[in-house]
Amino acid sequence: MNRLFGAKNNAAKPTLSGAISNIDTRVESIDVKLSALNSELSTYQQKMSKMRDGPGKSALKARALKVLRQRKQYESQRDQLQQQSFNMEQANMMQDNLKNVMTTVDAMKTTNKSLKQQYGKIDIDKIERMQDEMQDLMDVGNEINESISRAYDVPEDVDEAELDAELEAMGEEALWENEQGIGESNVPGFLQDEVPEFIDQPPESAGKVKEAAGGVG
Questions:
Q1: Which of 79, 157, 207, 209 is the most exposed place for a label (fewest CB within 10 A)?
Q2: For 9-24, how does the pLDDT look when each residue is reduced to its tens digit (9 = 90+)?
């Protein structure tokens, strides 16, 4: 049945990351071979530097040239693989950036839809009416505060000159009363209720002093 209809291929599809990893592994393998060839070339150079010209040196030189050609081929392959790896890395970065952009766009679409749903439930006219009502209530409150804080039986516009004249008249009246002796006690100054600081007991009243004076007479 599989031959007639074909079997389903369950193998994972190649990815850029997997291809880059494979190329990097090949580059590392080539680097190992190049290191061995460089070591071999160094050995040939040391031997040829100690030999005289002749068939032996010519044969050794032929081997060194063969190794050098192999090194050139491996270096060319490594450069090509590294360029391929670099190109795929750039493509992989572009793919990742595109995924990030698509994720950002999807998030923005979801946010935009949510904002439309939320703000669509808000009635601007109701908010304006509520603001007007709050302003009216604040005006009523201010009127109430002004009403209950009103001063009673006190004229609102008092003339400062009249106040100064009234205060001066009160001062002159008090001075006249002092000159006439109105409001002062007839008791001599030395018998008034003024206690020196060094006396603990207060003085006797003026009536008791008069009685004592009458008894002496």
A1: 157
A2: 666 777 888 888 899 9
DSSP, residue by residue, the chain: -HHHH-----PPPP-HHHHHHHHHHHHHHHHHHHHHHHHHHHHHHHHHHHSPSSHHHHHHHHHHHHHHHHHHHHHHHHHHHHHHHHHHHHHHHHHHHHHHHHHHHHHHHHHHHHHHHHHHT--HHHHHHHHHHHHHHHHHHHHHHHHHTPPSSS-SS--HHHHHHHHHHHHHHHHHHHHHTTTS-SS-GGGSS---TT--SPPPPHHHHHHHHHHH-
The pLDDT assigned to 191 comes to 47
Instruction: Please state the φ and ψ torsions of residue 64, each to the nearest 5 degrees.
Output: -65, -40
Chain CA centroid to CA 100, Å: 26
Q: What's the Cα-to-Cα distance from 158 to each of 146, 154, 167, 168, rounded to whole Å? A: 19, 9, 14, 16
Q: Which amino acid is at 93?
A: M
Predicted TM-score of the model (pTM): 0.44
Between 148 and 68, the higher pLDDT residue = 68
Report the Cα 80 to chain-centroid distance in Å: 51
